[in-house]
Amino acid sequence: MVRQEVRDTAERMLQLGLTSGTSGNVSARVPGQQELAITPSGMTYDRIKAEDIVGLDMSGKRVWGSRRPSSEWALHLLFYQNRQDVGAVVHTHSPYATAAGVLGMEIPMILAESVAVIGGTIPIAPYIIFGTRELAEAAVQACGKKNAVLLANHGVVALGKDLESALHTALVVEETAKIYLLAKSAGEPKVLSDSDLPAIFKAFGNYHIQE
After folding, report:
1. Is the full-model pTM beyond 0.90?
2. Which residues belong to the active site?
């Protein structure tokens, strides 16, 4: 079941324009097991099948599947090891959010809806070559308790309790980045303040997001 869900989410990510070709990756915890299911390396998401999804244990060892796991498997693994609230990870190369990352800018709190989903300003991790433990550690550290983090000159990591919510987080990041860059091109965006956070979290019922 989880293999099919990861496969379907990866294809949906492609259809939504959050990535292209073989870029990006998707994973989810395997219910009842200390394992994660992750997309394979080097396969386009409209062609992969459920049996192509790879299973890893929480040490990163492949436990099922014949394909090579995504080159970013360590990135996914470290989020699961450090965030027990995370049930799925979606890594995208969505254009507006990636553009913000290329500019080296975090995305401030401009929309109540995105604050509620992400937990505040969208932070950015420094540029480190993809597929490395160093990148994974930097991303986890920069993300903290938020539900998304930009990777400088790379893309986005979006988190959720399940695949549906992680994909939704990725969409919210991209929409927020788009609005922010459009607003910035016309003037200086007005940013929400920290004092606005309690009311936003209360309105959306996201008490657990507060740090």
Report:
1. yes
2. 72
Asked whether residue 32 is domain-assigned, the answer is yes
The pLDDT profile of the chain, 211 residues, written as one tens digit per residue, is 999 999 999 999 999 999 998 899 999 999 999 999 999 999 999 899 999 999 999 999 999 999 999 999 999 999 999 999 999 999 999 999 999 999 999 999 999 999 999 999 999 999 999 999 999 999 999 999 999 999 999 999 999 999 999 999 999 999 999 999 999 999 999 999 999 989 999 999 864 444 4
Residue 110 structure tokens: 């401009």
Domain count across the chain: 1
Domain-embedded: residue 211: no
Strands (E), 30-186: 35-38, 54-57, 62-64, 88-92, 124-125, 148-151, 155-160
